[in-house]
Amino acid sequence: MCFDLQSRLAARRAEHLYRQRPLLETPQQPEATVDGERLLAFCSNDYLGLANHPEVIAAMQQGAAKWGVGGGASHLVIGHSTPHHELEEALAEFTGRPRALLFSTGYMANLAAVTALVGQGDTVLEDRLNHASLLDAGLLSGARFSRYLHNDAENLGKRLAKASGNTLVVTDGVFSMDGDLADLPTLCAEAKKRNAWVMVDDAHGFGPLGGSGGGIVEHFGLGIDDVQVLVGTLGKAFGTAGAFVAGSEELIETLIQFARPYIYTTSQPPAVACATLKSLELLRGESWRREHLSRLIARFRRGAADIGLTLMDSSTPIQPILVGSSERALALSAALKARGILVGAIRPPTVPVGSARLRVTFSALHSEAQVERLLDILAECWNRLAEEPEADA
Ligand SMILES: *Cc1c(COP(=O)(O)O)cnc(C)c1O
Prior knowledge:
Helix content: 40-55%
Number of strands: 13
Largest sheet: 7 strands, mixed
Number of helices: 15
Bound molecules: pyridoxal-5'-phosphate
Shape: globular
Strand content: 15-25%
Distance between the termini: 33 Å
Strand order of the largest sheet: 3-9-8-7-6-4-5
């Protein structure tokens, strides 16, 4: 029999890898109702707490009243409207790049940029821990594709020496499952030696990182000569939806001409662009959100060390707790949930086998008291779990 979906699904269950979608019954916020239960959530990517901000909501409502709901067509036909254009200009100014191009999702922005820049005869070099959309983009491009050791400029250098054609080095800015930063100054220097371009997907850096939320390039003070292709997504700290690529005039024109995921899709609803213009203003201006977030992160790391938890080398709002097996990660996540705390268990294939983890994330809307509550309950659940023998490895 072909299409034996039943046994595929059964195998997935047996491996503790079966995925389910928790049903969110409130807006995105720390105290959320999920599957009928009131829970304190530490798992969204709404790092600055803008997804449910009254001014952002009002901007979207006014945008819909003025521009309607649907984009109506692709950008190249008649779907590129004034709010999209204004947002692109604002994002170019924000990133200090000559131009920016708006996309409907980050996944599509990544597919677009990589496939428009490299193809057969070229080379794409990616960090092993890059986001799935970047890895998919590399495969789809048809270029020679290889993955260098995580954040390892020396290993990248060896691969650069063997590269042919146009060569693109691609990395996450903040690694989404570990929370650590790409060592961009070193990676960019290595790329420059070989005339390779660097593309950074800073989905998790824009907002939390940099003095005005400009992400990892602002954090390290890197310009367009270091990072030629800069990607940001708008569904995380911006609290809205979509993504952008920022870079030179020629880069953006190349994407408009050749990037299929840009050309063959309907533009995002213009009201979403109106909302993002407002959230960009809040993200840049309200630095208290970043400062409060930093205090929460520091408090959590101290508390977690006291409990004896294994954290990762992260200074960002992504603070994974390394657990090991998928089964234990699920057990810990279930124990927390029974006590009113929601944290996602991240398992293979999203992370390497044996490194299942709880991915704790913080938002500027969390209070210090809520972080204390998380730590108290973590201590209780962790100590209980430690008493039980490990069943699988
Ligand atoms: C979330 C994410 C994306 C995808 O962005 P969407 O707008 O959600 O499609 C791309 N890259 C990274 C690193 C991400 O974390």
